[in-house]
Amino acid sequence: MKFPDQYKEHFRRNFFLAFPVMLSQLGQVLVGVADSLMVGQLGAQPLAAASLANVIFHVIMVFGLGVSLAVTPLVAAADGEQNIKKITGFFSNGLLVNIILGIVLALAVVVCTPILNNLDQPQPVVTLAIPYLRIITVALVPYMIFQSFRQFAEGMGNTRQAMYITLMGNALNIVLNYLFIYGKLGFPELGLNGAGWATLIARTVMALSMGGYIYYSSRFRVFRQGFSLIHISRPIIRRILKVGVPAGLQFVFEVSAFGFAAIMMGWLGTQTLAAHQIAINLASISYMMATGIASAATIRVGNQLGKGDLINLRTAGNTSIIMVVLFMGCAGLLFVMLRDFFPQLYISDPEVISIASQLLVVAAFFQISDGVQVVGMGALRGIEDVKVPTVIAVTAYWLVGLPVGYFLAFSFGMGANGIWYGLFIGLSLAAVLLYYRFRYKTAGMLSENVAR
């Protein structure tokens, strides 16, 4: 009975860490869902334009997200050691790295904007996408600041405050969408660009709120000196980048694969691209909630690493994988049962609804694979194992998933479904390899510990 009880305790701890993060991540993705729902009321072209702009924006943004996630396992391990000096060092240097990176990434998106004219997309869609992309680009800076404070707090085991602030920011975004997109209550009618301004304002408020909480909270008072940014340490910055850059590349390889899939959808027409935007928007809800479980895995694994408790480290990671399989299995069933209903929330175009409905069935198949691969990466990030997972990501998504999707779609005439079947194969390969990588690494760590 002792072994099941151990798992029961890990389920409890993982859940109480993961649940607020899942809601927080849900709030983040609902910003995109709200944009798509409200922009979809303007027609297929603005919805397709939002999808095209997000191809560039999300690839850049998730790299920043991955780098910011490096703070969490480092802080969690230092917290396991109860080393205040280390925690403060990771906080202050992580904040500096993320501020600079946010500015650099925003400039990178501006530089990449003209690429949209060379992707063989419908010109009316490109014309709408470019100004929208330039507006949401500015939101990268407050987003990275928010992430700095959020990942620090989560590394310390405080996952609730980010949830509250994210949900508040999401509510603000929806209200501002209503005002700016449709020109309500005397505000100018900005259409798709209005959704961009709403996102920028909401993320700025979120960054200020999270920073204010960390600064004024009595729990974090001892780390307030980290705000001064005078405790700069090159070794700490190198360590953050050593974990963060490969983690960022992992996200880039996955998201860019879905982004290139959107480009291929555009080759099939505006309606197909709009349908892809609806289906990927819905799939991103379950995926982002799965990243909440992945964050809990990172925190638990990193904390146990700091304590030197390798048995509980491995059990915490395995429990997280079981949790995400159960959660994503339920999400897949929901997609199948409501495949005809969900698209109608976005748009009334019958052709778009029909294509999106078919894609949701494919999405249901890859839910478990998507969940296992993101939690596997989170658990491995907790033990600072990021290089091999990066190789797995590029292999699974770019060397397997996308080529298979291309051939299924264009050589075998399967169209949009073929592209998504390729993504399913890539995600499944990543899930299997990352799961076995975690088993292999932790088994090695246990063997070394016994040998000592």
Q: What is the element layout, followed by pairings?
A:
Blueprint: H1 2-40, H2 44-68, H3 71-81, H4 84-112, H5 123-138, H6 140-155, H7 160-182, H8 192-216, H9 234-267, H10 270-307, H11 310-337, H12 350-382, H13 387-411, H14 415-451
What does this structure look like?
84% of the residues lie in helices and 0% in strands. It is mainly α and 452 residues long. It is globular, with a radius of gyration of 21 Å. It has one domain (2-451). The protein has 14 helices and no strands. Helix 1 (2-40) crosses helix 11, helix 9 (234-267) packs parallel to helix 13 and helix 9 runs antiparallel to helix 14. It starts with a helix and ends with a helix. The model has no long low-confidence stretch (mean pLDDT 84). The chain has helices at 2-40, 44-68, 71-81, 84-112, 123-138, 140-155, 160-182, 192-216, 234-267, 270-307, 310-337, 350-382, 387-411, 415-451. The longest helix has 39 residues, at 2-40.
